[in-house]
Amino acid sequence: EPEVTQTPSHQVTQMGQEVILRCVPISNHLYFYWYRQILGQKVEFLVSFYNNEISEKSEIFDDQFSVERPDGSNFTLKIRSTKLEDSAMYFCASSAGTSGVTDTQYFGPGTRLTVL
Amino acid sequence: DQQVKQNSPSLSVQEGRISILNCDYTNSMFDYFLWYKKYPAEGPTFLISISSIKDKNEDGRFTVFLNKSAKHLSLHIVPSQPGDSAVYFCAASRNQFYFGTGTSLTVIP
């Protein structure tokens, strides 16, 4: 069964450094998403991406964040200058796009980001 | 700003009995609701959804009920199985998805 993959599984970085989290969505999916979950807290929506542009973003997704689909398979989340509070598990998801936002989203296993 | 709340952080149920997980929301504009299951070290897995035009949706052992007047959503699992032990998140959507904090379900054999 196709699945969403994410790399790395764990990223440790120093505060102020840039990080790029990578995701390979399910092929033929058209919508892509990033979520994060700070330890012990709820899963939070960050951004959705469709047709090579951001379709929705939350208040969390400020200028420090950016997303890109650099080729036909990868979907990346960049944090320009990491802060301690960016430490979280980051989940990528994709959906087929046939029903828009109501499509089933398939989540990757997550990348644990630790900012020191 | 918690638009979606799961007030029970944990729930224990005997195998074979019914598990009922509850979720409340504040935004009457939400038009789509979902339940996700999450095992440790894995991403959330979609379980079942319901549109705001319905009040019930059933898929095998899983039934989701929506009470729009009360802004309340519940997930019923019957009969509960040990493999159902996981964290269950409810989520609500208009254009963005808002998740609850999760309820950890333990099904005791």
| Number of strand segments of chain B | 11
Write the element-wise H/E pattern of chain B from the N-terminal end onward: EEEEEEEEEEE
Q: What is the CATH H-level superfamily of chain B?
A: Immunoglobulins
Tally of alpha and pi helices of chain B = 0
Query: Helical proportion of chain B?
Result: under 10%
Q: What is the multimeric organization of the chains shown?
A: heterodimer
Summed up, the helix count of chain A is 0
Shape of chain B: globular
Residue-averaged pLDDT of chain A, rounded? 91
In the predicted model, the low-confidence regions of chain A spanning at least 5 consecutive residues are none
The ordered string of helix (H) and strand (E) elements of chain A is EEEEEEEEEEE
How confident overall, as mean pLDDT of chain B? 93
CATH topology of chain A: Immunoglobulin-like
Sheet-strand content of chain A, in percent, reads over 45%
Radius of gyration of chain A: 13 Å
Unreliable stretches of chain B (pLDDT < 50, length at least 5) are none
- Number of distinct beta strands of chain A: 11
CATH names the topology of chain B as Immunoglobulin-like
Largest sheet of chain A: 7 strands, mixed
What's the CATH architecture name of chain A? Sandwich
Indicate the percent of residues in helices of chain A: under 10%
